[in-house]
Amino acid sequence: MRIGLLTDGGYPYATGESRLWCDRLVRGLPQHEFDLFALSRSAHQEDQGWVRLPHHVSRVRTAPLWTPEDGTLRGSGERGLLARLVTGGGVSYGRRDRKRFAAHLAALATAICATEDAGTEPATDGGLFTEGFYGLAELARERGGLHLALRSETTVRILEAASRARGTGRTVQSATVLDHLATAAELERVLRPLSLDWYDPESLGAVDLCHAASGGAAAIPGLLAKRFFGVPLLVTEHGVQLRAHYLSAPDAPFGAPVRAVLANFHGQLAAEVYRQAALITPGNTHVRRWQQRCGADPARQRTVYPGMAAERFSPVGEDEDGGGPDTLVWIGRIEPAKDLIALLHAFAEVRRAEPDARLRIFGAPAEGDEATAYLAHCRALAAQLFPDEATGAHAEGVSPVTFEEIGGPEVPDLAEAYAAGGVVVLSSVVEGFPISLVESMFCGRATVSTDVGAVVEVIGGTGLVVPPRNPRALADACIALLRDPERRARLGAAARARALELFTVEQNLAAFRGIYLELISHAPVRREADTTDADGDPLLFATPPEARLLGHWTQPHPLATGARVPVRAAGARPEEPRTGEPVAVGSLARSLPPAPEHSARLEHSARPEAAAARQPGSASEPVCVCAATGGPGVGDA
């Protein structure tokens, strides 16, 4: 089948979220054809380029969610904020289109400015939000891009009127003109997917299933593909986008009124995505609960843990050597959410109970000045709490706490870092799916973790869990494991067995292999010219599987008369049989070799054409041998 994979700020770019997971999914399901529809987050991300794509990725479409410093979109001839309503192509809206735009934007603005108890939004169908959202999408599809219209003076006036309407809260009512300008700019950015040229029968209309690798902006093209073409939508979330927006809101350079309106928008967008998705696959129960709180139907949720490569940790996990028996190991990005301050204070208690204990911190600061300053603060605190200790009068002092980076001569890779200690510690105050915890489980290490995010779900009784921001409890758990090597060994073995059962790439691929087939089996066949037979009745399969192979699979077969079978270009649809002529049932006499890599063309332009097909009759072209039986065509089976 043909899968439209929707990503936001990740795959196929070399950097970004969910890049590794998407790459494993695409490479692990080579029996399907993938079309990638990717939204980029920055110019730096685009400059880093793409990862190497497998041959069954037939097309790539990209679009930016970022704006240059001059405030214009790439490829736009207009500059600055215009006070008139203009489409992306530079043609002014007529009076009717101006009224349509104002009506749809007013409905959307009323929905996101109202408080939850205002009663303006029916919870079952989205109410004013969906009316405005899909109305703007249809206008953009018919008349062009909305980015200049959404940055116009009319938009600011509509937002101002909606913020002062009955049913809005005090925070939204206090918005100033500068707040309305900021809200308009942010709405234009988050609604930018509505203006893309992906919504035609040759792009998203040609896929059998849309798979959004996250909620939020990545799922918007999937919503429109379902509305315009009836394509089923699958949504996978390893971290809830609405939760990420809430966590980042205090750091945003906006006032409280702007943050409140944007929070309402993202909340109602998440509810609409969950409402329209045929199936939602959260990465863990923590995400599952967030989705249900945002309106997801539990009957359409199915937890699928993100798969991780276990083989890279096999040598450590199968080694009976438990690493440094008196060494605690912490691995991750150094940032305030990881709460290394509490870990250092806890280790001070550990040192009083176990003087030979060591703490090795492997990591680097996250991006940003705040993370760099936090690392400097942690180093200063460690130097204050643990001055260098010397074993003799002439020996050099060594601190029991070290800050190290993976890749040096002592620790060349990640597996060696986990092997460096007997206990792995996680001290976070905010956590989604704890990847470092799963990696330590693959390595057969006992763990001490704080009870945040999906930690309890991942551990499942194979490690010790303590409350966050409690250095005393963290220290007691570490001391208990350091003093009991047999317990460490039992917990490590149980953790490795659990990780191999639940968190491998193989189980993740098996789950999505079944989900794809399940969703397609329940999806209605779209009645189009190439999906119906001569009488106008829908075929059993909208696109027969054999249509992806080379050959006239539904044509009267010439082998009955000894003629040579012509070869159809890869990916072409079969022609319909003429009335009154026999149709052959083809049976492969030998397996066809896979299509060469040059047969799949990657497209990256404003309006890419279909992937170029090989010319028939070339020397490398396989010829299939079929038996003509005169029975019904395979497409009619």
Topology:
Blueprint: E1 2-8, H1 19-28, E2 33-40, H2 43-47, E3 57-64, H3 95-113, H4 127-143, H5 147-150, H6 153-163, H7 170-173, H8 177-190, E4 209-212, H9 220-229, E5 233-237, H10 241-248, H11 256-276, E6 279-282, H12 285-293, H13 314-317, E7 327-331, H14 340-353, E8 358-362, H15 369-385, E9 401-404, H16 414-419, E10 423-426, H17 435-442, E11 446-450, H18 455-459, E12 464-466, H19 471-482, H20 485-502, H21 505-522
Parallel strand pairs: 1-2, 1-4, 2-3, 4-5, 5-6, 7-8, 7-10, 8-9, 10-11, 11-12
Helix pairs in contact: 3-4, 3-6, 6-8, 8-11, 10-11, 14-15, 14-19, 17-20
Could you list some keywords that capture this structure?
37% helix; 10% strand; six-stranded parallel β-sheet; disordered C terminus; 637 residues; globular; alpha/beta
Folded structure, characterized:
The chain is an alpha/beta fold. It is 37% helix and 10% strand. The protein has 21 helices and twelve strands. The protein has helices at residues 19-28, 43-47, 95-113, 127-143, 147-150, 153-163, 170-173, 177-190, 220-229, 241-248, 256-276, 285-293, 314-317, 340-353, 369-385, 414-419, 435-442, 455-459, 471-482, 485-502, 505-522, and strands spanning 2-8, 33-40, 57-64, 209-212, 233-237, 279-282, 327-331, 358-362, 401-404, 423-426, 446-450, 464-466. The strands form two sheets. It has a six-stranded parallel beta sheet. A six-stranded parallel beta sheet has the order 9-8-7-10-11-12, with helices on both faces. Strand 11 (446-450), helix 18 (455-459) and strand 12 (464-466) form a beta-alpha-beta unit. The protein starts with a strand and ends in a 115-residue tail after the last helix.
